[in-house]
Design a protein that fits this description.
Chain lengths: 118, 112
């Protein structure tokens, strides 16, 4: 079974530019999450999709961040325009529908996208 | 605000010893507490989940305890091996089991 994949693995952009991160969850996983780790800080939740619907976007820092999950499969996270404080590692995670697994809250993480804004 | 503290940023032990990592939390009543392992350049990998009504859970050389009165979880790795060297993350989740709240992690180094 393929794991969660993220693209690109690294991205270096200048302040003011736009970047789009992509996440492909494990096939069949209805839940998709975005997290971010800023240097020296803990991993922080950004938002949660159930299929194509945004279930919880309370962690999104501001309106420069836009997440989509069209068709309930892969997801994109766009940052526009990027600021220096957006630098960090962006993780995507997926999990099965809550009531179909023995450990319903186990999340499978991708390797992350390291974003550097200069 | 909700806060999770993992007792130390780094823990160094010798091979064969038991590693004990601590996770304390405040201003939160989690339904679930999870432990993840993270290796450099990789995403977190799930290890164990313990529910609020469970005191202890084991999986091979791993043991987790959960004390909701003390608001603390202990994570033990027995007979530690150099391959256990990694960063271990404590994470809490709410009743709906959605967003995970992470601690900063403890980096464990096991020397042979």
């Amino acid at each position: 079974e393929a794991g969660v994949t993220q693209f690109p693995s690294h991205s270096v952009i200048e302040k003011g530019q736009t970047v789009t991160l992509r996440c492909d969850p494990i096939s069949g996983h209805d839940n998709l999450y975005w997290y971010r780790r800023v240097m020296g800080k803990e991993i922080k939740f950004l938002l949660h999709f159930v299929k194509e619907s945004k279930q919880d976007e309370s962690g999104m820092p501001n309106n420069r961040f836009l997440a989509e999950r069209t068709g309930g499969t892969y997801s994109t996270l766009k940052v526009q325009p990027a600021e220096l404080e957006d630098s960090g590692v962006y993780f995507c995670a997926s999990s099965q529908y809550l009531y179909r697994t023995a450990d319903p809250y186990e999340q499978y993480f991708g390797p992350g996208t390291r974003l550097t804004v200069t | 605000s909700q806060k999770i503290e993992q007792n130390s940023e780094a823990l160094n032990i010798q091979e064969g010893k038991t590693a004990t990592l601590t996770c304390n939390y405040t201003n939160y009543s989690p339904a679930y507490l999870q432990w993840y392992r993270q290796d450099p350049g990789r995403g977190p990998v799930f290890l164990l989940l313990i529910r609020e009504n469970e005191k202890e859970k084991r999986k091979e050389r791993l043991k987790v305890t959960f004390d909701t009165t003390l608001k603390q979880s202990l994570f033990h790795i027995t007979a530690s091996q150099p391959a256990d060297s990694a960063t271990y993350l404590c994470a809490l989740s709410n009743q709906a089991g959605t967003a995970l709240i992470f601690g900063k992690g403890t980096t464990l180094s096991v020397s042979s």
